[in-house]
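Subject: Sanity check before I submit

Could someone independently write out the C-alpha cells for this chain? I want to compare against mine line by line before I put it in a report. The sequence has 186 residues.
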Amino acid sequence: MATTKPGAAAAYKPSGVSPQHRQRSRYAIRLWSIRHSRFFEGMYNTFAATLLGLHPILKKLGYQRMERPTVFVEKAVKSILFDCRMCGKCILSSTGMSCPMNCPKQLRNGPCGGVRANGHCEVEPDMPCVWVQAWEGSRNMKDGDKILNVQKPVDQSIRGSSAWLRTTSEEAETLEAAKSAGSVNG
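---
Independent answer below. Compare away.
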C-alpha cells in the first residue's frame, strides 16, 4: 500500500471538471469559430484596418515596446476562440479560422496523405483533421480561396510573438514603399 509523506500536497483537481471535459469545451469553441468563420473574417478585416490606421502611433511608441502587452491580449483572445498556438505568423484568415498548428504534424499547406475516410487525423484518430475543418470554414468566407495559397514554413524564431503587430508593420512598410515608388515615378 502506497503512503504519502506527511505534508505532501496532492495535485489540485477541481471537483466535477475532468481534463477531458476542459479539452472538449475548448474544442467545441474551436468548432464554433470555424462554423462562424465569415463573421470572424469580417471582424479580422476590420481589426487589421484599425491596426494599420494606428501604425503611425505604434511606430512612434515602438513596436518592440508594444509587443509584450499585445502578445498577452492576442494569446488570450486567439487561444480561447481558435485554440491558437501563437506561431507568430498567423494564417487563420486563410484557413477558415482553423489553426493549422493544431495539426499533430503542424502542416501549413493542407492535409497529409493520411486523412482517414471519415475525415479524421491519422495520428489522432479521434480528432477530425484540422485541414478538413479549415476547408469547411474557408467555404463560408468571402475570401475563402486564400486557403489555396501556398504558405511558407513557420519561422520558429518568432514563435510566441505577436502576429498582429508583425502583419501590421509589414503591411505598413509595403504601403509606404509603394507610396514612395509612386512619388519617384510620378
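---
OP: Matches mine. For the report I'm noting this point. Residues 179 and 185 are 10 Å apart (CA to CA).
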